[in-house]
Design goal:
170 residues, alpha/beta, Rossmann fold, six-stranded parallel sheet
């Protein structure tokens, strides 16, 4: 599957999950991010060259109190699986996991080149991540949802809303 096909599949899968997708490049990243972040916001450092949270109204390296007060959490996704609209969020010392889980809204930033067309292709990448020492992470598909008590409820075990920002020039 070509990269453009994978991105179209990813966009369709996210739409079916009621997840908003924003495409941008590094030059327009700050504007794209500000359009989807509701303060107060917390974040983990982004590993993309030429892109950071330095100019955003986002607290990096948040305290527990910052996490509890945050409306939005901004993190990088190590990669995405197009066919399911799934994001892989690696556990790291920067706090990607709590920043992605505690706030009501999660904004995930992923490079277009890290959108894999199928789960098989992504699991090859995941094997490489584990071999490199990344032993935990989250496979997140849409907003947190549960129907344990009957009716479907979102946001109980994590964010109730998800936005994905795709960096197209990576």
């Amino acid at each position: 599957m070509a990269a453009t096909d994978a991105m179209a599949t990813f966009e369709d899968a996210l739409g079916a999950l009621d997840v908003t997708l924003t495409r941008t490049d590094a030059d327009d990243f700050d504007e794209a991010l500000s359009a989807v972040v509701e303060p107060p916001a917390v974040g983990a450092p982004l590993p993309f060259e030429g892109v950071s949270l330095a100019d955003a109204d986002v607290t990096v390296d948040p305290t527990t109190a910052d996490l509890q007060a945050a409306q939005t959490g901004v993190t990088a996704a190590a990669f995405a699986i197009a066919e399911y609209g799934t994001l892989f969020l690696a556990a790291d010392p920067a706090g990607t996991e709590p920043v992605s889980l505690y706030p009501a809204t999660h904004v995930a930033v992923v490079a277009a080149s890290d959108v894999y067309p199928t789960s098989d292709a992504a699991f090859e990448r995941l094997a490489d991540e584990f071999a490199a020492g990344t032993t935990t992470g989250i496979l997140a598909t849409g907003a947190s949802a549960t129907a344990d008590m009957g009716e479907l409820v979102t946001g109980v075990h994590g964010p109730g809303e998800v936005h994905v920002v795709v960096l197209e020039d990576r």
